[in-house]
Amino acid sequence: MNYRHGFHAGNHADVLKHVIVLMLLEALKAKPSPFFVLDTHAGRGRYLLGGEQSQRTGEAATGILRLAAHKGLPAPLKAYLQAVKAGNPVDALLAYPGSPMLVAQALREGDRLAACELQAEEAQALKALFTGDAKVAVHARDGYGAIKALLPPRVGQDRFARGLVLIDPPYEAQQDEYPLVRDAVAECLQRWPGAMVAVWYPIKQRRTLQPFYRRVASLPAKGVLAAELLVHPDDSPLRLNGSGMLLFNPPWQLDQALAPVLKALDAALGEPGASHLLTWLRPPV
Ligand code: SAM
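Above: the input entities. Below: the structure tokens describing the complete assembly.
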């Protein structure tokens, strides 16, 4: 396991993923009953943008730092920027929050987060970040196995009818990850049918993803929405040209809320030949 998210924190893919995660959390917060979030591949939770890993790739410069300089953004992007800035001094973006941090910031009194991270050092850093936070449980374990162990969610006497599973693996062994992801989503939907499931995936060349799209479209969800941002044309298999989020059981009218967000991200972060796509792989029922 060589992957370290510190090299990529705050890049265009993180921006897309985290904006959408916050939109899903907002939809959950529209109802008073508590919800549960399982983050299967959580990372270390907070990344220093001036740190060695981040500086080596410079990826945040064309992601969060570029977006933060934009004015007139749609409301969900403004809310995302506010959430990112929450852990920073007033005038500087020194640290970038990972998914468990963004989720934890959004939790209300009864809501809970379980965050899994397999890499020992990353898991240790994540545990340190949430020491003393009773709403967050950090598990140094395989996130796929956690789906079986933790779903449907129960915390003490509490059961959670609503919530979100975020599946955000590193896709290190490229082709091997897709069947794992598909099976993981199937397991989530079977164990916790009311949950939303969000899956991040990298895009080098879109056409190579067609079999994956077909396989996930057949899963028993009330709608499967794909939201993609390609900051480069998808004509090179060698670089990360963009990424997408698959959304199973997405909230009502999320597609309408997402359309202007993707358009604004394309305009703010896209290089020549950039594009975005919002499509139902399985229409809502
Ligand atoms: N979700 C994080 C965020 O948005 O801030 C980023 C996660 S990063 C893309 C993927 C993480 O998964 C890495 O920290 C890696 O160490 C971890 N990882 C890899 N395989 C794993 C597994 N089977 N279970 C849990 N974590 C895993």
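Note for the figure: The radius of gyration is 18 Å.
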